[in-house]
């Protein structure tokens, strides 16, 4: 058993008969009254996010988790297939367990958290950013850049991303996997 003092991002806990991952937290010590911890929890079984407040010193049940590097192989319907880079064991995960499945490119390495007691995969941590090639976008109109104007672009995985007007087909762009937004153009 742990307490609220042990709460950190990425910690997996048992809560309300489910396993949740702590996405973000904030220790709050008001001027009047007891301290508490405000958390945002993501269910590892159905992907739902809920806000919860724990009082200071509240006991939490921590799930022991092992993290392994897996390489994304291919998608088949709603199942995504991964291979452990050390043991070459393959696993299949449902699309719902992934944060940004539309940004996964074949060959991308991800971190998979596995419940040490049941050997069941819990969550998949994407890299902070991915570099993908733009396969389709409308040409930008010259002189139309007075404001931060964007246009939709389709990348090689099929995802739609809003990009600045100067991005053309064939350009490689860096995308933030947490928000799914354009970060910068990558030069070869």
Overview of the molecule:
The chain contains no helices and 16 strands. With 188 residues, the chain is mainly beta. It folds into three domains: 2-62, SH3 type barrels (Roll), CATH 2.30.30.30; 65-125, Nucleic acid-binding proteins (OB fold (Dihydrolipoamide Acetyltransferase, E2P)); 129-186, Nucleic acid-binding proteins (OB fold (Dihydrolipoamide Acetyltransferase, E2P)). Pathway: Protein biosynthesis; polypeptide chain elongation.
Helical proportion, percent range: under 10%
Can you count the helices? Answer: 0
Instruction: Kindly identify the CATH topology of the largest domain.
Output: SH3 type barrels
Main sheet summary: 6 strands, antiparallel
Q: Report the end-to-end length measured between terminal Cα atoms.
A: 50 Å
**Unreliable segments (pLDDT under 50, ≥5 consecutive)?**
none
CATH architecture of the largest domain: Roll
Q: From N to C, what is the helix and strand string?
A: EEEEEEEEEEEEEEEE
- Kindly provide the radius of gyration, computed on alpha-carbon positions and rounded to a whole number of angstroms: 20 Å
The CATH class of the largest domain: Mainly Beta
Shape: flat
Number of domains: 3
Main sheet: strand order: 1-6-2-3-4-5
Q: Strand fraction band?
A: over 45%
Chain-averaged pLDDT: 87
Pfam families: EFP (PF01132), EFP_N (PF08207), Elong-fact-P_C (PF09285)
Domain Elongation factor P C-terminal: 130-185
Pathway: Protein biosynthesis; polypeptide chain elongation
GO biological process, one term: peptide biosynthetic process
């Amino acid at each position: 058993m742990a307490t609220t003092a042990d709460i950190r991002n990425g910690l997996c806990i048992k809560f309300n008969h489910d396993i949740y991952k702590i996405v973000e937290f904030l220790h709050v010590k008001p001027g009047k009254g007891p301290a508490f911890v405000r958390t945002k929890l993501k269910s590892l079984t159905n992907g739902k996010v809920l806000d919860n407040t724990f009082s200071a010193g509240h006991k939490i049940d921590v799930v022991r988790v092992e993290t392994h590097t897996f390489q994304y192989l291919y998608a088949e319907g709603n199942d995504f297939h991964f291979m452990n880079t050390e043991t070459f064991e393959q696993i299949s995960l449902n699309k719902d367990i992934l944060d940004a499945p539309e940004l996964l490119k074949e060959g991308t390495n991800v971190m998979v958290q596995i419940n040490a007691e049941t050997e069941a995969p819990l969550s998949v941590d994407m890299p902070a950013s991915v570099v993908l090639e733009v396969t389709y976008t409308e040409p930008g109109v010259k002189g139309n850049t007075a404001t931060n104007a964007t246009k939709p672009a389709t990348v090689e995985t099929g995802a739609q991303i809003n990009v600045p007007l100067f991005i053309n087909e064939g350009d490689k762009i860096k995308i933030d996997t947490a928000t799914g937004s354009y970060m910068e153009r990558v030069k070869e």
